[in-house]
Amino acid sequence: MSQPTYIELLCPAKDLETGKAAISHGADAVYIGFTSFGAREAAGNSLNDIEQLIEYAHLYHARVYVTLNTILYESELERVQHLIHQLHQAGADAIIVQDMGILEMNLPPIPIHASTQTNNVTVEKIKFLQDVGIQRVILARDLSIEQIKEIRDATTVELEAFIHGALCVSYSGQCYMSYAATGRSANRGECAQLCRLKYSLVDEDGNVLATDKHLLSLYDFNQTQNIASLIDAGITSLKIEGRLKDIGYVKNITAHYRRAIDTALEQRPHLTKSSSGKCTYQFTPDPDRTFNRGYTTYFALGRGGTMASFDTPKSMGKRIGKVKHVTKDYVVIESDEPIHNNDGLCFLNQSNTLVGFKVNKVDGEKITPAQAIAVHNGAIIYRNYDHLFTQQLMQTNSADRRIDCELLVTIGNEHLTIQLTDEDGISTTLSFNVANEPAKDEQKMLDSMKKQLGKAGNSPFRINKVAIEKSQSDTPFIPVGTLNGYRRSLLNEHSKKRIAEHKIIGNSINPSSKPYPEMNIDYKANVTNSLSEKFYKRHGVRDIEPGFELNNNSKGKTIMTTKYCILYEMNLCDGRVKKVNKKLYLQDISRSYPLHFDCPRCEMRIDSPNE
After folding, report:
1. What is the pTM of this model?
2. Residue 605 included in any domain
3. Are residues 31 and 51 in contact, defined by beta-carbon separation less than 8 angstroms?
C-alpha cells in the first residue's frame, strides 16, 4: 500500500502564544521569526520561545519553520550560520530563506524552503531551486492555478502557496519602493508600505485620471473557494499570511481553513493532513468577522474582477446593512445581523472617506454612536470590530485539539500494566505494582478503572476506549487517587515519547554547478554579500549587479514590478490593449513615479523618480 500524500495547513506565529493558538486551532505547521533576519522586523522571537513552540508543536507532530528570509549583509553571514546551527539543535523543522548565500554556508542537515521573496514564478527558476537542494519552494502569490499545474508537472520539489491574508502588490522580493523613498528595505523586513498610501494618476500632459486614491492598495487574499483546486494542482502546503496579525485573527482564520481543507480531504482518501489530532471550536469561524480589506482571489483564476480598494487601505470588515434614517441622537440601521454594544462600525461618507464609530447603545434598529458622526441615509454599514465575536476568540478554551487514543489495561499478579496507543500507532506502556488485596465488589472496581483511566483532563489526548484483560482471577482494589496517578504518569510519558519520535527529514546542500536560468543578473537578484555572489558564479552567472540596497544611485531604476495593472483596474485596458497611449505617472505629495506597461507580459513597472 502506497504512503498517503500529506497536505499541510501552515499558519503564522507572531509570538509563542499565537503559535500555540494556531496549533490548537488546527494548524499542521507554523512559521515564526527570530529576533533578526525575518521579513517582518516587528515579529521577532527569542530562541527560547522558538524552542518552547517547537516542543508544543511536535507533540501534535506539527512543524515549526523559522523565517530567515531577508537579504544578508557581509557582516551578518557568520552570525546567521551560527543561528542556523542553533535552530537545528532546537529541533526546527526547516528554515525559510531568501538569500542564496546561505546555501554556500557550512550548514547542518536542516530542510531549506525558498521564500516567496526569491521570486518563484517560472518553471525554470523553480526547477533550478529543486536541483540545488531546496526542499520546498514557496510560490509567488501572482500565479494562476493553471500555472501552478504546469510547475507541478515539471518538478518534484514540494510546493507551497499562500491562500489568505494581505497581498504585496509587487512580485515578492522585487519591491524597492520603500527603500528608494525612505531607506527602509522591504527585503530587510522594514517595508514602509508605500503601496497603502494615496496617489494621483497623471498623464504626461498633466491631465489627472484619478486624484488622491489608494491606487496600489490591494484587497486581501482569500482562496476559500479554490482550496480543492489548489490541492489538485499539486500544492501540499497551504499558507496563511499574517505574522503581524493578532491572536484572535489567527484563531479565526486557522479554524476556517482547517474546516475547508478537511472538507477537501474527505473527498480525496489518498490525501491526509500532516499532523495529529482533531479540533472542536467554541465559535463559528468567519473570515469576514476579523481584519480584512475586502477579498480577492487575485490571479488564481486569471485576470478579472476588481483587486484594489481605492478608497481605503484599512479593514472594513463585514457588510451588515445600510442606514435608513438619521437623527441627532441615533442612527436607524437596517441590518442583516444583530448589532451589539461596543461594536465598531464604519462607512464610506459622501466623499468616499472611511469613517468609523463605536456603538454605545442598541435599541432595535436604533443605534446610538459613542460620538457624534455625520452619516447619510443609504450609507452602507460595515462592522470592522465585532465585540461578541472577539470575546469568543479571546477565550482560552476557544478550541480544543485532541489526539485519539485507546487504553489496554492488563491485570496480572500484583501488578497492573497500562498500554496507551494513539491514532498514529505510537504506544506507551507502564507497569505498576499493586497490593494483593482483592476488591470487595469486582464490577465496581472494574468500572472505576475504566472511568478514572479513561479521563484525559487537560492533556492533548482523548481516550475513546478502555479495555481490561485479566491474567488472574481476582481484581485488586486500587484507590481512585492511585488510578489517577497512574493515568497522569502514562499521559506524561506518552507526551514525551511523541515529541521524541517526531521526525525531521533533513537534507544536506551539496554544492553543484547546475546552470542558473540566466547568464547575467541585475540588482533584482538581491545579491548583497560575497557568499551570494559566489553561489551565482558557481552556477554559471557571469555578470552580477549588486543588490539595490548597495547601489548608490537608484534614479530611473525600476522599483516595483507587478502583475497588477492600474489601467486594467480602472477599465483603461481591454485585455492586453491600452486605451491610454500617453506616458503615465503616479504622484504623491512630493514625487512623481513613471509607469511602464509591458502589455505582452501583462505586467506594470514603477520607476524611481528621475529628479
Report:
1. 0.95
2. no
3. no
